[in-house]
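Support request from a user on the community tier.

User writes: "When I paste my structure tokens into the form, the page sometimes reloads and wipes my input. The last time it worked, I copied everything first. Here is what I submitted, just in case something in the input itself triggers the reload:"
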């Protein structure tokens, strides 16, 4: 493969050319309601060529190595047409030339676990959900597994072969009483082993119990509260509300965003440090090299409350004159890489959970991530559920918890960072530029935020 790709990449005759080729094995198992919904296997196989000439890009994908030469010619032709029309300059940050082959150290290789055994484990979780309580009327289980060999070569001499595993799963229960329906889920995921799917019964029983209890729980009363976010919700916030603003392909094209994200800006208190990394092998989003053949590294975005960095591809780093971060990622071979997050994290602080709630007269402990949306600086997110905080202690369970606000104001209002840490993994992923779901995760502690707008009941 090295000789095939290395020879082909020299045919382009442009400023820069790269080839990425993938061989994958996919397994997807889903349960809906009270039984198995489907089992799907697939073996996608193909690659793409990107060519750069005078700042203009060309891209072509192919499904057979027999078509590689034609794809190189097509991508190069596109690049020349675009570059000649634009009359620009190709700007790529210099990257080390690498020759490497990387295979993860698996904790439990899923290829060593039969389909029958995987089904036995998932059937056990199905029985546990449906047998928990008569109020639980349906289960939702999704298990996705992708194992890929990815080959990368560029015109500068880099050649990398990587084996990548991505497992993402969601186990959920739906409880119903009359017209009231509540669903609760737990997520599992890993880049190094099927063992992430084992021993989920305790967490699953807790989720089932919450689903039943939430049937009778009141809506949270809308208002402005001191809010303590658990690690899952803190992870959703830092990824969706802040992480996307840190992707340089957004900033350099948008002068207003570039101004808002000027390096050196004070965004919060000195207890706040945010970084993005590919280094956590247990989590989804782990990778040694990105899809431009650049080694990933920990990239500090906020350090001690100050904006210090952003995420880059080779092109955005070259245009903005900043360091490479190894953040160019593509969903699969049919797409070109974009600037994307990997594991977006808040560094742990020194506060215990008891410290966070002990001086709160009336507040909210928001737990779990239920999705949401962002619009520039504004966001609104649903928590899975919440508990009121009254006179420094956790009180009643509440539902329909929605947090909303401005990301920069919210960062300024983080006044405590917990000493706990937890990862946010599951069956979904990040979406951008039509590429969804890209595996991402985050390792975050609980955080306390002052003056949060909470939507709910009257």
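"...and here is what came back when it finally went through:"
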């Amino acid at each position: 493969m090295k000789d095939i790709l290395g020879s082909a990449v020299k045919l382009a005759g442009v400023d820069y050319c790269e080839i990425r080729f993938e061989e994958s094995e996919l397994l997807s198992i889903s349960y809906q309601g009270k039984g198995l919904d489907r089992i799907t296997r697939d073996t996608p196989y193909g690659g793409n060529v990107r060519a750069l000439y005078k700042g203009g890009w060309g891209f072509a994908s192919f499904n057979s190595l027999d078509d590689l030469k034609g794809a190189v010619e097509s991508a190069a032709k596109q690049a020349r047409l675009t570059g000649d029309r634009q009359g620009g300059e190709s700007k790529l940050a210099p990257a080390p030339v690498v020759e490497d082959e990387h295979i993860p150290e698996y904790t439990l290789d899923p290829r060593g676990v039969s389909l029958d055994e995987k089904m036995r484990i998932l059937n056990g979780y199905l029985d546990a959900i449906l047998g928990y309580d008569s109020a639980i009327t349906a289960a939702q289980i999704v298990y996705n597994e992708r194992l890929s060999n990815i080959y990368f070569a560029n015109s500068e001499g880099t050649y990398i072969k990587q084996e990548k595993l991505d497992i993402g799963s969601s186990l959920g229960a739906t409880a119903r009483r009359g017209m009231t329906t509540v669903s609760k889920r737990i997520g599992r995921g890993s880049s190094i082993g099927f063992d992430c799917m084992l021993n989920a019964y305790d967490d699953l029983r807790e989720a089932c119990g919450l689903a039943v209890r939430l049937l009778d729980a009141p809506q949270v009363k809308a208002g402005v509260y001191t809010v303590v976010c658990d690690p899952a919700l803190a992870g959703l916030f830092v990824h969706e509300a802040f992480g996307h603003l840190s992707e340089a392909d957004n900033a350099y094209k948008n002068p207003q965003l570039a101004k808002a994200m000027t390096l050196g800006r004070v965004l919060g208190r000195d207890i706040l440090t945010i970084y993005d990394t590919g280094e956590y092998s247990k989590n989804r989003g782990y990778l040694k090299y990105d899809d431009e053949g650049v080694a990933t590294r920990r990239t500090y975005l906020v350090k001690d409350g100050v904006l210090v960095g952003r995420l880059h591809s080779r092109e955005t780093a070259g245009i903005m004159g900043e360091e490479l971060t190894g953040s160019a990622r593509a969903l699969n071979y049919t797409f070109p890489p974009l600037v994307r997050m990997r594991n977006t994290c808040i560094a742990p602080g020194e506060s215990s959970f008891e410290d966070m709630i002990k001086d709160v007269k009336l507040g909210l402990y928001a737990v779990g991530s239920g999705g949401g949306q962002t619009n520039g600086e504004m966001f609104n997110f649903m928590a899975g559920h919440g508990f009121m905080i009254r006179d420094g202690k956790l009180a009643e369970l509440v539902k329909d918890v929605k947090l909303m606000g401005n990301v920069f104001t919210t960062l300024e209002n983080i006044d405590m960072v917990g000493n706990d840490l937890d990862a946010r993994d599951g069956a979904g992923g990040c979406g951008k530029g039509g590429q969804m779901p890209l595996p991402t995760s985050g390792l975050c502690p609980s955080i306390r935020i002052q003056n949060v707008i909470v939507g709910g009941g009257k």
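Agent notes: The reload is a front-end session timeout and is unrelated to the input. Residues 223-455 form one domain. The first strand starts at residue 16 and ends at 33. Escalated to web team.
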